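Chapter summary example: a protein plus glycinamide ribonucleotide.
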Amino acid sequence: KAKVAILISGKGSNMAALLYASRAADCPYEVVLVASDKPSAPGLDLARGEGVPTFALSSKGMQREEHDAAMEAAVQSSGARYIALAGYMRILSAGLVERWAGRMLNIHPSLLPAYKGLDTHARALAAGDRHGGCSVHLVTAVLDDGEVLAQTPVAILPDDTAVTLAERVLIAEHQLYPRTLADWVKRDMDAN
Ligand code: GAR
């Protein structure tokens, strides 16, 4: 199976979705590392409980390049060929992104190219959109700008708040990310 490292900053529900999907016999990837810039990220406990190696390093007081280098070293020593960003809330340095070009994916809670960056659900609501949604895309040096691999639109309901919409989009994320990552690594492995 293709080895994947997952980077998280928080709850890690997408990481959990990726991990549990990987346990299916026909899944083409396995999770070899969960790494975080937040040592207290709840997702790290879940990963440990599931027997997945973890790495945590706070970015406090570190230069971006220095922190990225330490994260990348942990990923390299895990043997991962792919990186899945799953609620990793730090911008990565250009060098790191370039080294992993085509092998680093991210999930973003909007229908890209709409609403790059933060507060995606509040912005969709304020604009009167009929749909929010989520996108899985390749990571490039420009924030939330790489090729979109797959998306799921999620209907906005009359009483939605940013919180209720986020909850529903998250359900869609948990379906979309494992399937898209599986398709991508299958395609990439066949090509290489
Ligand atoms: C998810 O909604 C993800 O799309 C979003 O953060 C949440 C993480 O939840 N990511 C971004 O906003 C990236 N800029 P999780 O930790 O439960 O997976």
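Key point: The beta strands are 2-8, 29-36, 54-56, 82-85, 104-108, 131-138, 148-155.
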